[in-house]
Amino acid sequence: MKISVIGCGYLGAVHASAMAELGHEVIGIDVDERKIGELAAARPPFFEPGLPEILTSATASGRLRFSTDMADAAGAEVHFLAVGTPQTAGSHAADLRFVDAAFEDLLPHLAEGALVVGKSTVPVGTATRLAERLAEVAPHATLAWNPEFLREGFAVKDTIEPDRLVYGVADDAAAATLDEIYRAALDAGTPRIVTDYATAELVKVAANAFLATKISFINAMAEIAEATGADVTQLADAIGHDARIGRRFLNAGVGFGGGCLPKDIRAFSARAEELGRGDAVAFLKEVDSINLRRRQRVVDLAVEALGGSVNERRVAVLGVTFKPDSDDVRDSPALDVAVQLKGLGAEVVATDPEGLENARLRHPQLAYEASTTEALRDADLVVLVTEWGEYRGLDPADVRDLVANPTVIDGRNVLDPASWRAAGWTYRGLGRP
Ligand code: NAD
Q1: Which phi and psi (to 5°) does residue 229 adopt?
Q2: Which residues act catalytically here (predicted)?
Q3: How far apart are CA 309 and CA 302, in angstroms?
Q4: I need a surface site. Which of 164, 192, 276, 382 has the fewest CB within 10 A?
């Protein structure tokens, strides 16, 4: 099919490339000229495993093109809206300016019978509002909402082989068109839920609310473990054996971040309040608070580890991205910890395999070091805050001689305390003795 993908960020660039890889003819549109220039040259503007390969093969095949001109989307039968929906400055609500602007820009270019498919995460009610606008301006066209569940770091696989497909539609024809687009996944047995707009919009925010709650639940247990000498990792293993609970997403640590979970739970609360149902999701405020307290806990542990002050002490911060296998530093707990330590006077040296460029743009006041070895050299304290494989695999005996003082705070509970202690380190995890 002929497809346009409007908004070529972490979601849209992968979606456009994956759709072309599946055989569709795709044009990616974005207002960011630099990004479009990179994509058109088959260079991913961000780090995502597997993206370089499909971007290269899809552009070489001629099935994938990019443009900053919305008029180039005119030939498409289906238009995916994949623009950002960040948190509004000074409020918890989602900022829908980009969705509204992209939608309005697209309207004059819609071919007869075109299908507009929302992928962005939006407050419930947005699709109905946009469908009403479409009925006014382009009544021949239809709207669907098809929320995206990809995980950064696994985005290509998650797009080509999703766990499930959710279509929020107003008629069967829209569902049939989406089936044609996702034929390969459907043939491979991917479950598909066809529903109304409101349910589709809510599925996405409910899923993120659940995941955020699961993480904050185990982090709340970590707080109790810290007060009692219990070990939250053993607790998670033990409760995780119950299939109703499950072990995944029960990793206590510095908490969640990124461009989705934090802003999505806040936007959900804000929307529920608008609907007069704020009480129903009031717990999400607690989920957010527990999450932010964990960042503070890491900072407090750092101060404690250095005898009451980090001032003028050299702290190696391992990781700046919000998760491994991504260069995304949006609302990153790791970067937040680094900035807070710097604010307390520490000589922070932050390192990361992929995130340094983005981190430097946001926080030029921090010192960055590409080499882990150099970041560790002469450190008074090591703080691991993003669980990159490289950091998980550090040999405590090897790195012992690099640092000035062998103390490590494992903000992701991914190091083996026994082997680090055996190698002469003072080890502090979160919620574990
Ligand atoms: P992003 O900021 O990386 O990308 C958004 C892109 O939209 C940017 O490149 C921006 O230049 C472009 N844009 C803004 N206004 C535009 C316009 N008028 N016309 C064309 N392009 C425009 O954001 P993202 O992480 O890709 O997220 C996009 C949406 O997908 C959000 O709603 C997000 O919540 C949702 N989502 C993201 C992920 C993820 O893991 N990143 C997963 C699922 C859902």
Answers
A1: 85, 5
A2: 260 (nucleophile)
A3: 8
A4: 276
Instruction: Report the distance separating Cα 104 and Cα 96, nearest Å.
Output: 12
Mutation probe of ligand 1 site: the residue of 260, 265, 323, 330 with most atoms within 8 A of C-beta? 260
Question: What residue ranges in 47-110 does DSSP mark as E strands?
Answer: 64-67, 78-81
Question: Is this model's pTM higher than 0.95 or not?
Answer: yes
Which residue, chain included where needed, has tokens 């066809």? 194
For the chain, what percentages of helix, strand and coil (3-state, to nearest 5) are there? 45, 15, 40
What domains, with CATH codes, occur in the chain? 2-195 (3.40.50.720), 289-429 (3.40.50.720)
| Rounded Cα gap, residues 46 and 323, in angstroms | 14
Q: Return the DSSP state at 382.
A: E
- Our mutation pick for probing the ligand 1 site, out of 4, 27, 29, 30, counting the most ligand atoms within 8 A of Cβ, is 30
For residue 429, give the H/E element and its range. Answer: strand 426-429
DSSP 339-379: HHHHHTT-EEEEE-SS-HHHHHHH-TTSEE-S-HHHHHTT-
